[in-house]
Design goal:
Protein name: Lipoprotein
Radius of gyration: 21 Å
Shape: globular
Order of helices and strands: HHHHHHHH
Strand content: under 5%
Number of strands: 0
Oligomer: single chain
Organism: Aliiglaciecola lipolytica E3
Distance between the termini: 71 Å
Largest sheet: none
């Protein structure tokens, strides 16, 4: 009886195999998660409001490779603040995963020890946050058009082809304050 049940389970599980790679098609639009500035490892004072999360995560990789975790934490907090702001202004909710995908792609190659060093720096900066909050406020809210995110969503394939992808009457000041509060626990100004 046990052999019969095992045989049935084997048949059922082999029938559940995923499709072969040959039949999977990955569609991407131009600009999806695209970085526009090739950045080196930057400290918070070198970060500009024109840098997208795609730009910042790319530069963050340089920081980690050079074991400059203080600057890596700066770039991470700026990227996440800008990304949060972008999720508030981009209409297509399916596009909001762009920042999560950028983060996963950036950190996937690193082992847990390296990630723990970065997490330690981020935790320190957001616990004693007066300096990082002041620096993020000085940089200011993003000045770029969030194409990297808009082109990541389903709307890039459907209804948004003729719009700019942004929410009408968007309250940028409120969204920026919210981004700083959520990411770095900054008090409202």
């Amino acid at each position: 009886m046990a052999k019969r049940v095992f045989g049935i389970l084997v048949l059922l599980l082999t029938g559940c195999q995923s499709t072969s790679q040959e039949s999977v098609v990955n569609y991407e639009t131009q600009g999806n998660l695209q970085s526009h500035h090739s950045l080196a490892c930057l400290s918070m004072t070198q970060i500009r409001s024109s840098y997208t999360p795609a730009d910042l995560f790319s530069g963050l990789t340089s920081c980690v490779e050079q074991q400059q975790f203080d600057s890596a934490a700066d770039m991470y907090l700026a990227a996440m603040s800008n990304g949060y702001f972008d999720t508030r202004r981009v209409v297509d909710r399916s596009a909001h995963q762009a920042v999560m995908v950028l983060r996963m792609n950036t950190f996937a190659p690193y082992d847990q020890d390296v990630l723990n060093l970065l997490l330690s720096e981020i935790t320190q900066k957001t616990t004693d946050n007066s300096q990082v909050c002041g620096q993020l406020k000085n940089i200011g809210m993003p000045t770029y058009h969030p194409t990297y995110m808009i082109q990541h969503g389903m709307g890039a394939f459907t209804e948004q082809k003729h719009s700019n992808g942004l929410i009408n009457n968007f309250d940028a000041d409120l969204a920026w304050q919210e981004a700083l509060k959520v990411v770095s626990n900054c008090p409202k100004s």
